[in-house]
Design brief:
alpha/beta, five-stranded parallel beta sheet, 43% helix, 5 helices, Rossmann fold
Amino acid sequence: MRNCQKKVLVIDDEAAIRDNVCRFLELEGYLAVGAADGAKGIAEALRSPPDLVLCDLMMPGMDGFGVLTRLRAEPATAAVPFIFLTASAVPENATTGFKLGANEYITKPFSLPVLCTVIAQRLGLES
């Protein structure tokens, strides 16, 4: 268990996925905060900038591309590592995400230990 208390913002419109990822991250020692949609995620990130963002791509209202674009435009969140966690395995979506500034693109279903390793690497907690 990591006792880092790094804050990870999990933005996903599917409550079961969001809650499970948050619970897993908390067991790993992270402070996990969930947001049910893009607008709520942006509001949370700007209110209290996280150390890392996990974001679904396909959500009602504002999609993950919109969230990433908005967070990259804000000084407080411009450099925060951003990981897409999505069911979309369409190569063009990954390419677009990287062009907009995403750091990783992970497709669902995913392995929680692998997700944890990627997060730790992005936060500089593991080499």
